Amino acid sequence: xxxxxxxxxxxxxxxxxxxxxxxxxxxxxxxxxxxxxxxxxxxxxxxxxxxxxxxxxxxxxxxxxxxxxx
Length: 70
Known about the structure:
Layout: H1 2-28, H2 54-67
C-alpha cells in the first residue's frame, strides 16, 4: 500500500506542476491581434473537373462488392 500511495503522490505532483505551468502561461502571455493575408489559387472555370467525384466512385464500388453474392 505505501508503494501505491507514493505512486499516486508522484503522479499528482507531476499533474499539478503541468497544470501550474499551463496556468502561468495563460496569465503571462498576451496574444497580439494582427491581420492574416493568404493567397488562394483558384483555377480558371474551364479547368474545373466535371463528372463523378472520387468519393462517389469509391462508394459505388463498395456497394457493388457488398451486393455481389458468391
